[in-house]
Design goal:
230 residues, alpha/beta, Rossmann fold, 7-stranded mixed beta sheet, 8 helices, globular
């Protein structure tokens, strides 16, 4: 399936705030059902084992409503892992939703507005995570984003959709079963059509200077790109 990227409705800076919040809630529901939070949590656990009890500095990039970061934070707490969490996004609306969601979940979460392609990320992190964002970018910007994340943290886990026909069918069905948002119903299939394949993601990581990058497939129809993880 050839890659086709069209502007996603949620990326519109003029999007109504109430509609944006409704779409973020729908995406969070899709992520819960697909158990997407388990993927960044796996990387948190591995880094924590290597750090031997020291407090981790974890940065979640393009966090949206931060559902993945919040879920991973709660898992870390249950396992006795001390971590300091920062979430960044370009959208003030998304950051407000992330802060409120973290407060309701009893999770300490620092939020920072960052334009990833034009501004540096918070530096000296132990782990950077990024879920379901890279498909929003064309090749040169995706390489630039990966390089920025690599410069920010010694270890990283970038999770995104795989561009497959099965993934497209799952996105179409799930977006209609789990959300009434017109934005979610448009953006979910559009995201799969714009997604990078695992081999393409690995090639871009190498172009970004991430020599030890590795990629593996994960259910449902996702891949995980990592570096700095044994």
């Amino acid at each position: 399936m050839q890659r086709t990227r069209v502007p996603e409705l949620m990326d519109d800076p003029a999007l109504d705030a109430a509609e944006h919040r409704h779409a973020l809630a729908g995406l969070a529901r899709l992520n819960r059902v697909s158990q997407s939070a388990r993927l960044p949590w796996e990387s948190v656990r591995r880094v924590a084992q290597a750090r031997r009890g020291r407090t981790l500095r974890v940065l979640d990039v393009a966090c949206g409503s931060a559902d993945a970061a919040i879920a991973a934070s709660r898992s870390a707490r249950r396992h006795g892992i001390n971590a300091c969490w920062t979430a960044c996004d370009i959208s003030e609306c998304a950051l407000r939703e992330a802060s409120e969601a973290a407060r309701c979940a009893g999770v300490e979460l620092r939020t920072v507005r960052v334009d990833l392609l034009r501004e540096p990320l918070p530096a000296e992190q132990d782990l950077v995570t990024c879920s379901l964002f890279l498909h929003h970018l064309d090749g040169p910007d995706a390489v630039r984003a990966l390089a920025a994340m690599h410069a920010s943290a010694r270890s990283g886990a970038v999770i995104d959709l795989d561009r497959t026909r099965l993934g497209l069918a799952l996105a179409w069905m799930a977006s209609r079963m789990l959300s009434r948002s017109r934005i979610v119903r448009f953006d979910a299939p559009a995201s799969v059509r714009a997604a990078w394949r695992p081999d393409e993601a690995l090639r871009m990581a190498r172009e970004a200077g991430i020599a030890d990058a590795r990629v593996r497939r994960a259910w449902p129809e996702r891949w995980v790109l990592t570096w700095g993880l044994a």
